Batch of 2 targets.
Target 1
Amino acid sequence: MNIERFGVVQRRAEMVLHAHTLYIGGQVASDTSADIEGQTREVLLGIERLLESVGGDRTHLLTVRILLARREDYAGLNRVWDAFFPFGHAPARACTLAELIDPAWRVEMIATAALPNR
Amino acid sequence: MNIERFGVVQRRAEMVLHAHTLYIGGQVASDTSADIEGQTREVLLGIERLLESVGGDRTHLLTVRILLARREDYAGLNRVWDAFFPFGHAPARACTLAELIDPAWRVEMIATAALPNR
Amino acid sequence: MNIERFGVVQRRAEMVLHAHTLYIGGQVASDTSADIEGQTREVLLGIERLLESVGGDRTHLLTVRILLARREDYAGLNRVWDAFFPFGHAPARACTLAELIDPAWRVEMIATAALPNR
């Protein structure tokens, strides 16, 4: 069936592989006391850790959908984001405001990535 | 061109196939008098029916993006969702709150799936 | 690594190609004085221009995620959308309301498309 799942619990797989493409479910920060810069950093590093588990890194991201809880956090999100990606390796992205399930989350990201050649 | 479309009307295809991947448009319940459990069940079964039309089922889902109209429906959504997937076969998922086009809809899902081997 | 990026700036690629699939980041209108019909037209034509840069057109779209700022714009969005696609070539789509980053934007679209045979 050509589907490989990673980080499996009853409710979801954290990452799914199919046809050389990796699909990562909604990622949020566990340290919800952190401000937007801290939460953004934790989310991006968490996504990278998932990619590293299959031999990839941040440069393999294809798309990131960003859901931001508060408009005033947009500048802080971008400060961390822009520093995270080496020039020429940022994914396609879209960012809108959204009410997140846990009001303590200030940002959630949904990503897809290319499977690195193994 | 290698694109196959299913459930075609002027405005959209209900499902599109490309490169062994199935893309399903936003799915909602037609019985909008149902509560969150009823609407969740109808949406999930509707998605499975689309997959069955190409020889698949719920275990072929790769990702589901869940848009929930009301935060207090989160527990009911998850009760139906968790019972729906055999352990180890749930997709990557992300769930946020959103205002849906028809205020009678309590949940909308957008899914991708793997084409079963035929 | 098999990732090709188009329209690259520090923050993002406007379009990314991987495994015969094109991923387009969030597209909005630059003429924010336009009404919903004008903004919808500009966004759809902007997406088509990206596809034309790799030899495609509107019929190569697989999915479009529509984020609409105001419910009362739904009819105007659909008037332009329905006229845009030749019958049988519309993508899978999902449309919900969302608060967009710039309050002058009335619609944002996130698209995926099939790479045309070259």
Note: The beta strands of chain A are 4-8, 13-18, 21-27, 61-68, 92-97, 99-100, 107-114.
Target 2
Amino acid sequence: MPSLSPSLDKLIDALKRLPGLGPRSASRIAQHLLADEKVQALALAHALEQAVKNIKRCELCNTLTDSELCPICADEARDKTKICVVESPADQQALEETMAYRGRYFVLMGLISPVQGVGAERLHLQKLLNRVQDDRDLKEILIATPFTPEGDATAHFIAKAVSARRNDVRVSRYARGIPAGVELEYTDANTIASAIFGRR
Amino acid sequence: MPSLSPSLDKLIDALKRLPGLGPRSASRIAQHLLADEKVQALALAHALEQAVKNIKRCELCNTLTDSELCPICADEARDKTKICVVESPADQQALEETMAYRGRYFVLMGLISPVQGVGAERLHLQKLLNRVQDDRDLKEILIATPFTPEGDATAHFIAKAVSARRNDVRVSRYARGIPAGVELEYTDANTIASAIFGRR
């Protein structure tokens, strides 16, 4: 069949590279946008360009933010004795929504995964370890990576690396109240809160 | 919680308006693009802008295309005696892939749906009916809308409107029956009944 529209094909192609979208849903989205919602399509293009332009990593905690320091790191009222290590900004947001944790964060933006060739250096762990070494207020690292093989490997690596640098910093992992294999961002607030209070 | 990044929030907001995406998948896609794939994010923004700029409706069949006439309508080798009426360019493509139909098309870009307030005028049906009236080569309209209440209502409306204009144009609808490779026991009663009534 001759292509009806090379521009449509290119748009479907770009959409189906997004995580969680296949060729059918990409084609449905593209047709929806071009048939009825051209304004929405341009708004999405603009939001993409603005986000690419504005978003950087927080200098302290590595999360996605528009400023040098994210609002949480910049907040003087947060508990400076604790750092919670999470996989992603979505996990960080899920924790924030519980209101059970008032310390600071370090956002890995991934997990150690030998299978996918992601090592410690890809996760900017040096940034965390420098902070552990230099920050004399710090008393505790709470590791909130998921209970998956990658999450366990990452937690293990961080615990070992922190202990090697400071023996006065307590390293804990949130309690296994979160079902194994389930991502933090898909868990309800109560379960997350219990896991934080039950940390050992 | 203070927003970590207004640009990220705006992007998630634009993504979650797309059909089939909820807040979780929108947030996952946004973080994927901004953390690792800024080039891909810009490519998507560019594809959206190009598509909005280039895509129009085919003057004859109403499908999405980059030119005045889509490649199928422009193809002199296609059978001019038949028009197949489909809901969307995706349905049109599915039919083309069968190689079982060599006529032309009319693409509704929707279905009549009183519940959603979509009437005949939204579907540019006047364009189809003018074509039925003027095109003396035309001998048959094959209606390929889905077997849903909206698909049935649309088929019924078109059949009535065409018969009112031309009595020498045959109006048919594609056969309802058991799909190839599907077990009878997993097929709904309506479909089985139609397959029995439509036996040859």
Note: The first strand of chain A starts at residue 56 and ends at 57.
